[in-house]
Write a structure and sequence with these properties.
- The chain contains 17 helices and 14 strands.
- It is of the alpha+beta class.
- Helix 4 runs antiparallel to helix 8 and helix 8 packs antiparallel against helix 10.
- Bound molecules: iron/sulfur cluster (SF4).
- Iron/sulfur cluster binds next to helix 5 and helix 7.
C-alpha cells in the first residue's frame, strides 16, 4: 500500500492538462483551490496505515492474497460490503467532505461482475483483461476515477439521435492496436486526483445504432487527448485568502471537473466493452447501485460532523438546554442514523454475482440513496436553525484580526462567557461551509444528483419492488385467492 506521502509524490509525476478560471494549472498538487480535495483523497491512504482502522480501511486481495487498501478491493462477502460503508462513514467524519475515491472503487466492482457475465454470454475475453488491470491497480494502490456521466444534450433524444454525436462518449474508430474514443464526462468527482480513468457507458443502450456508445475502458489520467476543466464551487476563492477561518474547513474538500476526450487512444488490453450494448444497462445499474450504497456511509459521516457542529454551536450560543434545541438535535441524529441503517441493510443483504464479487441488494441501495436526496437537506436546515443567522452575517477574519476594529468583533460577537469569540466564529464558518459553502456541493447537491438524480432511484425501486408479489399477498388474505 502507498503512504499518503507516496500518493502525493505519485500525483506530482502526472502531467494533467487542467484549466481553471480560464488558465492552465501547471501544478495541481500545490494549487490552493485543488489541494484540500487532494488532502481528502490522501486521507484514504493515511488511515489505511493506522492500526485503529485496519479492519475498515484494508482488505486481503482476492487476486494476489496481499494486503491492499480497501478502495481497490473486490467485495468477497457481505461483511466486505458492510466494512465499505463503515470505512466511508469514518472518512466522512475525518474530512467532512467528499473523499472521491469511492467512485472508482464502485466502478471496479461493477465492471468485474459485468465483464464476467458478458464473456459467459458472448464468448468475449474482457474479464481477464479487466482483472489484469485491477491487479495493477491493487499492486500500485492507485486512485481510479469512475467516469460515467455523459453530457447527454437533449434528454428526450437517444444517443444516436443527438444533433452532435459526441454528446455521448463514443468509439470513433477501431484500429489494430486499440480503439479511439471521443466525447466528454461531466461532474467527474476527484478526477484530477486520480491516476486512472475507468470509463463506462452512461445509460442502458439498445440496438445496433447505439453500439458505438457501448464503451468501457481504462486510460491513465495523463493520456494524450484528455483535457480537464475544473468545476467552481460556492466560496471557492476564499481558499486564496490569507487566514484559515473563513473557509470553514480549510484542510479538506472535494472537486468535480468536466473531462474532454479528444480522440483518445485506448489499447485493446484496456478495453472492457466494445459494442456489446446489451450489457451497458447491467453495468450502469450495478455501478449506480454500489454508489447509492456508498452514500449511506459518506454522507452519514459528514452528517456526524454537522450534528456535532450544531450541538457545539448551541453550547457556545447558550441555547443547549432549550428543549426545542435538544429535540432538533435528536431529529438530526434520527435522520442521519436512518441513512446509515439503509447503507448497512443493503450491504448485509448483498449476494454473490457469477464472478464471485458481491453485489448489494439493489432495492435497498436505491431506497438508501432516495433518502439521501432528502434527509441531508433537513439536517442542514436544522443545523442552520440552531446555528443562528450570525453564520451568514459575521464579518471576515481580516476584520476580526484588525488592529483597530477587531476588538469590537471580539466583544460583540462573543456567546457564552468563557468561550473565546474565535471559537464561536470558527464553528459557525464550518456550518456555513457544510450547508451553503463549498462543502455543500458534497453534502447537499451531490446528495441530490450524485449516483443518479431522485427519479433514477424511483425507476429502480419500481423495477425491483415486485409489486405483483405484494398484490398476491393481499389477494390471498382478502380471500380472493388461495395460497399455493
Ligand atoms: Fe465517496 Fe461520497 Fe464522494 Fe461518492 S460522494 S465519492 S461516495 S465521498
Amino acid at each position: 500500500m502507498k503512504t499518503a506521502a507516496e500518493y502525493l509524490d505519485s500525483l506530482r509525476k502526472l502531467n494533467l492538462n487542467i484549466y481553471m478560471f480560464g488558465e492552465r494549472v501547471e501544478n495541481a498538487v500545490d494549487n490552493p483551490i485543488i489541494r484540500p480535495s487532494l488532502n481528502s483523497v490522501a486521507k484514504t491512504y493515511e488511515l489505511a496505515w493506522d492500526p485503529r482502522y485496519e479492519e475498515e480501511m484494508t482488505a486481503t486481495s482476492s487476486l494476489t492474497g496481499k494486503k491492499i487498501n480497501r478502495f481497490t478491493h473486490l467485495h468477497q462477502n457481505c461483511a466486505d460490503l458492510v466494512k465499505k460503508v463503515k470505512m466511508q462513514r469514518l472518512l466522512g467524519q475525518k474530512t467532512a467532505s467528499c473523499f472521491q475515491r469511492c467512485v472508482g472503487f464502485d466502478a471496479l466492482n461493477a465492471v468485474d461482475s459485468t465483464t464476467y457475465e458478458m464473456d459467459c454470454a458472448l464468448g468475449t475475453g474482457y474479464h481477464k483483461r479487466f482483472r489484469d488491470f485491477l491487479r495493477y491497480v491493487q499492486d500500485e494502490d492507485l486512485v481510479c476515477n469512475g467516469a460515467m456521466t455523459d453530457p447527454k444534450g437533449d434528454r428526450s433524444l437517444r444517443p444516436s439521435q443527438q444533433s452532435d454525436p459526441d454528446l455521448y462518449l463514443r468509439i470513433v474508430s477501431k484500429e489494430a492496436a486499440g480503439i479511439v474514443v471521443r466525447g466528454a464526462k461531466c461532474h467527474q468527482t476527484g478526477v484530477i486526483n486520480s491516476h486512472e480513468l475507468l470509463v463506462m457507458p452512461t445509460i442502458a443502450l439498445s440496438g445496433e445504432e447505439e453500439k458505438d456508445y457501448a464503451a468501457c475502458f481504462a486510460v491513465p489520467s495523463d493520456s494524450k487527448g484528455l483535457l480537464y476543466i475544473y468545476g467552481r464551487q460556492a466560496s471557492d476563492t476564499r481558499k486564496l485568502e490569507n487566514g484559515s477561518m473563513d473557509v470553514g474547513n480549510c484542510r479538506y474538500g472535494g472537486h468535480e471537473a468536466l473531462v474532454i476526450f479528444e480522440d483518445v487512444f485506448v489499447p485493446w488490453e484496456r478495453v472492457f466493452m466494445c459494442g456489446e450494448y446489451k450489457f451497458a444497462g447491467t453495468l450502469v445499474e450495478r455501478f449506480a447501485g454500489y454508489h447509492r450504497q456508498s452514500y449511506g456511509g459518506c454522507k452519514v459521516g459528514v452528517g456526524d460532523v454537522l450534528i456535532g457542529a450544531a450541538a457545539q454551536a448551541a453550547d457556545y450560543n447558550g441555547t443547549a438546554k432549550a428543549s426545542h434545541i435538544k429535540d432538533k438535535l435528536v431529529e438530526m441524529i434520527h435522520l442521519n442514523e436512518t441513512l446509515y441503517a439503509c447503507g448497512i441493510a443493503c450491504s448485509s443483504q448483498g449476494c454473490a454475482t457469477a464472478s464471485g464479487t458481491f453485489l448489494i441488494d439493489l432495492l435497498l441501495a436505491n431506497v438508501c440513496k432516495q433518502n439521501v436526496t432528502r434527509f441531508p437537506y433537513e439536517i442542514a436546515r436544522l443545523a442552520e436553525d440552531i446555528a443562528g443567522g450570525l453564520m451568514v452575517t459575521m464579518p471576515a477574519e481580516q476584520d476580526f484580526r484588525h488592529p483597530q476594529i477587531g476588538r469590537y468583533v471580539d466583544k460583540y460577537l462573543r456567546g457564552v462567557a468563557g468561550v473565546p469569540t474565535e471559537q464561536r466564529l470558527r464553528l459557525l464558518r464550518l456550518i456555513e461551509n457544510l450547508t451553503i459553502g463549498s462543502a455543500a456541493v458534497a453534502y447537499r447537491t451531490e446528495s441530490m444528483h450524485g449516483a443518479g438524480s431522485p427519479q433514477a432511484q424511483r425507476v429502480m425501486i419500481a423495477r425491483q419492488a415486485d409489486l405483483e408479489k405484494k398484490k398476491k399477498l393481499a389477494r390471498v388474505l382478502a380471500g380472493i385467492e388461495t395460497e399455493e
